């Protein structure tokens, strides 16, 4: 479930980056706090960093509560779990198409956008001052409320391609799904 939620969140973040009125956005990096609240009001909070390039390369570096790195390149994902010494390689059902996601998002008001991916509506809020993405909210398929807040946002900054390359350590188990 964590992996599916992570992939959907990544797809959404690409949509939200593309949905800004910034037509020439080439990259996005930020710190994030992701809070998932269940129907029974149980909460889990993840923190980390995200790096995204228009070319389809994405890296989510989860730092708490557990270390985990999720690498996406077009329609292929690798979930690196250092604490478990394992890497999960997964073929995604579809390639991330930024142009399609851009065309599907709709501006609700000056600083709000809505888009729908896989029958889930996502609300994107941007800063009034600089149009940078502040947060994303949605209800996942299990009826959990999900909110991702971004800080230290850098749009169109330099991100080296090397950060998106994962080399499997020799002591890791490799799982292919």
Return Rg in Å.
Answer: 16 Å
Helix count from the secondary structure assignment? 2
Largest sheet: 12 strands, mixed
Overall geometric form: globular
Mean pLDDT: 82
Layout of strands and helices, then pairs:
Layout: H1 2-19, E1 27-37, E2 43-53, E3 57-64, E4 68-73, E5 76-81, E6 86-91, H2 98-104, E7 106-109, E8 112-117, E9 120-126, E10 133-139, E11 145-155, E12 173-176
Parallel strand pairs: 6-12
Antiparallel strand pairs: 1-2, 1-11, 2-3, 3-4, 4-5, 5-6, 7-8, 8-9, 9-10, 10-11
Helix pairs in contact: 1-2
Describe the fold and architecture.
With 177 residues, the chain is mostly beta strands. It has 2 helices and 12 strands. Strands 7-8-9-10-11-1-2-3-4-5-6-12 form a 12-stranded mixed β-sheet, with helices on one face. Strand 7 and strand 8 form a beta hairpin. Helix 1 packs across helix 2. About 8% of the residues have low confidence.
Key phrases:
177 residues, mainly beta
Q: What would you say about this model in short?
A:
By secondary structure, the protein is mostly beta strands. It is 14% helix and 49% strand.
